[in-house]
Design goal:
This protein has about 325 residues and is α+β, with helices and mostly antiparallel strands. Helices cover about 25% and strands about 20% of the residues.
């Protein structure tokens, strides 16, 4: 099993040997009804790509009578076993997190001892967010971040992202695909009661980000999706990305409404809004756009550098 080393390490570190974990072992992931959430088959762990967190719950029973010296020690041992169970469920969920359209974290664990070591360190820093002792069973919930310090991104992104210069040093394409007229003044954000449409050709920026309207396309969430043009060329994803920005906030944001998208820090004050035309992969992680929109994005980026800052938003379907 891919996570056996992590699970064993965490078990030895946190589980009191006389206490009992109450768990169902599984690494299978089922797609939640929410396109931004994956859940473990046993229902004890889930990753939320919108919130950028992974949570897991574990259970523990008190030790056999006579093992603990008093009720307080028995309770602590049960909580310790529950935490070990939660961390094991967390490790299994982390292993199953979708990274690219074709790979999960476990693929990188298999190929790299460095990734395995990084993940072990990250899992040790998982945060306990809830403890409960009820009807003789202890329950503990832990969480860890997808992005930022002590995150899955810190462990995995260095394996897939090239060494890209910081946005302040980035020169963009030497020859933009299309010529842009001088930038016009940014427009004020529209009122939230009115949804903005696609950015007209007459709007020349400068742009703070790109919002790709993927609604109706069934796009699913991943840690490292790509934006493709309809000819199969990569516009963004593993190219034009600063690893530092990606680790801090992720490669894309996944809002569920246009108002949420335009109010997000990632979008900034003047996003370039384009429409997705479909998905570039069978699992529907990588949206596609028209070649014309791809050229427009790359040309604007040569001046505004929003791609290097990971200022990219995939607007997905709302919850039904």
């Amino acid at each position: 099993m891919i996570v056996s080393l992590l699970s064993l390490t965490l078990f030895l570190a946190y589980a009191p040997q006389a206490a009992t974990m109450v768990t169902t072992t599984t690494t299978t992931v089922r797609r939640d009804t929410d396109p931004l959430v994956d859940t473990s088959a046993n229902g004890k762990a889930r990753v939320n790509f919108n919130a950028g967190v992974i949570k897991a719950t574990g259970s523990g029973a008190p030790p056999a009578p006579g093992v603990a010296s008093n009720d307080a020690q028995s309770r602590l041992m049960a909580l310790g076993a529950a935490k070990a169970d939660a961390l094991r469920n967390l490790a299994m969920m982390v292993s199953s997190v979708q990274v690219t359209s074709e790979t999960r974290v476990k693929n990188f664990q298999t190929e790299s001892d460095i990734v395995e070591t990084r993940l072990e360190a990250v899992l040790r820093n998982a945060r306990v967010i809830r403890e409960e002792f009820k009807d003789g069973i202890a329950t503990v919930t832990v969480e860890m971040a997808l992005y930022g310090d002590n995150s899955v991104a810190e462990a995995v992104y260095p394996e897939i992202l090239p060494e890209t210069p910081a946005s302040s040093d980035w020169e963009g394409p030497r020859e933009p695909a299309i010529a842009l007229p001088p930038a016009t003044a940014p427009r004020p954000l529209p009122p939230l009661s009115r949804e903005p449409g696609l950015t007209p050709e007459s709007d020349n920026g400068p742009f703070t980000s790109v919002i790709v309207d993927c609604r109706g396309m069934g796009i699913e969430a991943a840690m490292a999706p790509k934006l493709m043009d309809d000819s199969g060329n990569e516009v963004y994803g593993t190219v034009r990305v600063s690893a530092d920005y990606a680790i801090a906030v992720g490669i894309v944001g996944y809002p569920r409404s246009m108002s949420e998208a335009i109010r997000s820090k990632r979008a900034g004050s003047h996003p370039l809004i384009v429409r997705a035309t479909g998905a570039g992969d069978k699992h529907r992680y990588n949206p596609t756009i028209s070649r014309r929109d791809a050229e427009r994005i790359l040309s604007a980026n040569s001046r505004d550098h929003f791609l290097e800052r990971t200022s990219v938003v995939f607007l997905v379907d709302p919850l039904k």
